[in-house]
Specification:
Layout: E1 3-8, E2 36-37, E3 46-52, H1 55-62, E4 70-77, H2 82-90, E5 93-94, E6 97-98, E7 103-106, E8 128-135, H3 142-149, E9 154-162, E10 165-166, E11 175-177, H4 180-186
Parallel strand pairs: 3-9
Antiparallel strand pairs: 1-3, 1-11, 2-3, 4-8, 4-9, 5-6, 7-8, 9-10
């Protein structure tokens, strides 16, 4: 069995089939011929993508009983206040259903991420901020819908961790093969659902928008 951790760049489809205007996984690699994405990231979302031929792992990652935490770094418009962070932590209504409890932390400074090839759109008089958001679901464009519901549209979105697996020092387009112990950790016993995070003091980010 082979499982690969790949840093998916911005604008790349989470599939091997090319479509007009987008690169796909076929433009990177080479990957073993029998691995496929376990889950997906939208073309405009960057970061950690797993590719595997291990059906057991695919099932574990897709089954909501296992509550695999997925951590994202999210650049949003304006600085979220305590109420917006509380809503993200306790759950917001998207597509007629409330999201599970999440972890949401306002970062004191911009995270150390590679520049994005396409500049971030931002308004000169509207500040931006970064949130570390950890969810245990995988609904369609969930993070973007959550932050929009809380009043803070997403500008840049990077998945940096699934369970105990993190991007580490990988750069966009780079990959590494996971060891047996790492895969077994993902295939472990079901996790308990996370409890709502305790309120935290809001720390303001004074920096304005960046080109990402």
């Amino acid at each position: 069995m082979t499982t690969i951790l790949f840093f998916k760049p911005y604008g790349v489809l989470s599939q091997f089939t090319r479509e007009a205007g987008h690169q796909s996984l076929a433009d990177f690699g080479p990957f073993p011929g029998d691995v496929y994405p376990a889950g997906r990231l939208d073309a405009d979302t960057e970061g950690l993508l797993l590719l595997t031929n291990d059906n057991r792992l695919k099932h574990r990652l897709a089954d909501p009983r296992f509550f695999h935490p997925k951590k994202y770094l999210v650049q949003v418009e304006r600085v979220p206040d305590a109420e917006a962070l509380r809503r993200l932590r306790e759950g917001v209504m998207i597509d007629g259903e409330r999201t599970r409890p999440a972890e949401a932390v306002l970062l004191a400074q911009e995270p150390d991420l590679p520049p994005r090839p396409v500049p971030i759109r931002f308004r000169r008089n509207v500040p931006t901020a970064w949130i570390a958001l950890t969810i245990t679901e995988g609904r369609n464009r969930q993070v973007r819908k959550m932050t929009a519901s809380a009043g803070h549209p997403t500008l840049r979105l990077v998945r940096v961790q699934i369970g105990d697996l993190a991007l580490g020092g990988l750069k966009p387009g780079e990959m590494r093969t996971l060891g047996v112990a790492e895969v077994n950790t993902l295939c472990g016993n079901p996790r308990k659902p996370p409890a709502p995070a305790a309120p935290a003091k809001v720390r303001h980010n004074q920096a304005g928008g960046t080109g990402g």
